[in-house]
Design goal:
The chain is an all-alpha fold. It is built from four helices and no strands. It has helices at 2-27, 32-57, 61-81, 88-109. The longest helix has 26 residues, at 2-27.
């Protein structure tokens, strides 16, 4: 039960991250460098989303811990980088990182 709760929260976090990447890609101006950077972010986020979805079908403790750990690190860094923007882009990645950390600790302790 805790495995699937952690996997669902991890997948939701990856989906949110991918959603922000899609938004960045769609709002990137015609500047080649900005568009290319947005494509790199989207590729990273989409790959993590696929990996997170995989945790729902391939039940493996190490796999889940690895994907969740990667998302925690990425979201914490995203929150740190986004602090200059303020608003949702600052607190949402931090909240997702804290939520993922909380459920991962509970899962590992069980």
């Amino acid at each position: 039960m805790l495995y699937y709760l952690c996997a669902i929260i991890t997948t939701f976090s990856a989906l949110m991250s991918c959603g922000f990447a899609v938004a960045a890609r769609n709002t990137a101006d015609t500047n080649f460098k900005a568009r290319r950077n947005a494509n790199y972010v989207l590729a990273r986020s989409f790959s993590l989303l696929l990996g997170a979805i995989g945790t729902l079908f391939l039940v493996n403790r190490g796999y889940l811990v690895t994907i969740t750990g990667l998302l925690i690190l990425i979201q914490a860094l995203d929150g740190y980088i986004a602090r200059l923007d303020g608003g949702v882009r600052t607190w949402l990645p931090r909240a997702l990182a804290l939520g993922n950390t909380f459920i991962l600790v509970i899962y590992l302790a069980a």
